[in-house]
Design brief:
alpha+beta; Beta-Lactamase; five-stranded mixed sheet; 12 helices
């Protein structure tokens, strides 16, 4: 091997040093040839220096070789290539260099491919570091914000201070809707933030999407559903009133002439009074409906604070304990970890949980076997800073065609239901920046709160 020449060079020099050292010792101890001893000492020093210089030279060559590998210069210094001691390393270097070049080329291609994808996605993307310096922004973001280039969030502050403030307050995993106004036009932008922890730094990835069309479409659909419900409720209230009014009118008319008082019988008067009572009852129902609609349309903004999940759910179960006992319904809850907390308006979220438990109780009461009447509540972390609360019942489930209808305001399948419980619950959760969803089959129904 080529390294043997290096070892042989060291051995020869060490042997010569030993021989000269023995000769020097002999001259000093057994003879009086001081000039010879002095000459031998000088030669010994020169040999020692030569050994050190030889080792240092080879070490320097090796360091230069490793430096070339580290810098991936692509070519080997001719003096290194000619050095017999490093010919074998030279071959390894060439192989490693080829691998590094291929890896770098693959990485560049992958980076170019990723940038191409990011530039062509419809959502605007802005990546910035902990010092708010923008490290990447795609064309969709610049077009959406009407800014040619953004080097830092300070640039965004200069153009849209409210938007920049909203971004700095946004927590990872949360989504907020911002009313964006520019050039006398208004649109709604969805803002969501993800935090990527890299080995040397942390990158914040902000996604911006114009959801105006989607919201308008959903709003139109929601209004259509709401109008159907309103028309249904108003028709149900007015139709019997109109019918009763016509009937009562016939009691007091004959051939389009008003019947005189002496011709009215006690039976006719009693029927008229009952009819008026029914009209009053239906009128009160319409007033109650209008009152519910007013309360639903004017919800206060949530005042959020850190709340213990154990305390929140425990309070609700204690509040509903008597109703559950009377209905022979068992309930249990699991909180993991036990010290789980969440940010919310406690009163509003309690109202949501009460509505869900009330719906679960009504669904379970249809079961003839009390042993199967069961409600379970699960609370656990969701993503980094959010919470997932799950309320499940063992009822017969909700028909698939009604799963979305149940969240429409005033829609109900119950005779005494107001139809605002679930719609109110979803709106309260959405006001927290969360989501309320439902899954149902013949084994029961589960409501999931992500908040």
């Amino acid at each position: 091997m080529n390294f043997n020449k290096f070892y042989i060079g060291i051995i020869i020099r060490v042997v010569l040093i030993v021989i000269m050292a023995l000769l020097l010792a002999t001259l000093v101890v057994k003879t009086n040839y001081w000039y010879s001893a002095f000459t031998a000492a000088i030669i010994l020093a020169l040999q020692t220096w030569n050994l050190i210089a030889y080792i240092n030279a080879q070490g320097k060559q090796l360091r230069r070789l490793l430096a070339h590998m580290k810098e991936n210069s692509g070519s080997l210094n001719p003096s290194l290539a000619r050095n017999p001691a490093f010919k074998e390393l030279h071959h390894f270097y060439e192989e490693i260099n080829a691998i590094i070049k291929q890896t770098r080329q693959d990485r560049q291609e992958q980076l170019h491919f990723n940038q191409l994808i990011l530039q062509h996605v419809q959502s605007g993307l802005i990546a910035f570091d902990h010092e708010q310096r923008v490290v990447f922004i795609n064309e969709a973001a610049t077009e959406l914000l009407h800014i040619h280039s953004i080097h830092s969030l300070q640039t965004l502050y200069n153009f849209y201070p409210d938007l920049a403030e909203k971004i700095t307050e946004l927590e990872p995993g949360n989504t907020q809707v911002y009313d964006f106004k520019v050039n006398h036009s208004s649109s709604k932008i969805s803002l969501s933030l993800a935090r990527l922890k890299l080995p040397e730094k942390t990158i914040n990835l902000l996604a911006l999407q114009d959801i105006t069309k989607e919201l308008n479409y959903q709003e139109s659909g929601s209004w259509q559903k709401l109008m159907r419900v309103l028309i249904h409720e108003i028709t149900n209230a007015i139709t019997p009133v109109t019918s009763l009014t016509s009937t009562l009118g016939n009691f007091f008319k004959e051939k389009n002439q008003v019947v005189t008082a002496d011709r009215l019988t006690n039976e006719t008067l009693e029927q008229a009074v009952k009819g008026l009572d029914l009209i009053e009852e239906r009128g009160q129902a319409v007033l109650d409906f209008a009152r519910n609609f007013k309360s639903f349309a004017h919800l206060p903004e949530p005042t959020q604070k850190t709340v213990s999940a154990n305390s929140l759910i425990g309070n609700i179960i204690q509040l509903k304990a008597e109703n559950l006992h009377k209905a022979d319904i068992t309930i249990n809850y699991t909180i993991s970890p036990k010290d789980l907390t969440l940010r919310c308006d406690q009163q509003q979220l309690e109202q949501v949980l009460i509505n869900l438990i009330n719906n679960a109780i009504e669904a379970i009461l249809e079961l003839p076997d009390a042993a199967k009447r069961h409600i379970s509540i699960l609370a656990k972390p969701y993503k980094e800073t959010r919470c997932h609360i799950q309320v499940s019942d063992s009822g017969t489930g909700i028909p698939e065609n009604l799963l979305e209808e149940i969240f429409v305001p005033f829609f109900t399948t119950k005779e005494q239901g107001s139809g605002i419980g679930l719609s109110l619950s979803r709106q309260l959760v959405q006001m927290h920046g969360g989501k309320l969803s439902v899954f149902s089959n013949q084994q029961g129904t589960t409501f999931d709160i992500y908040i």
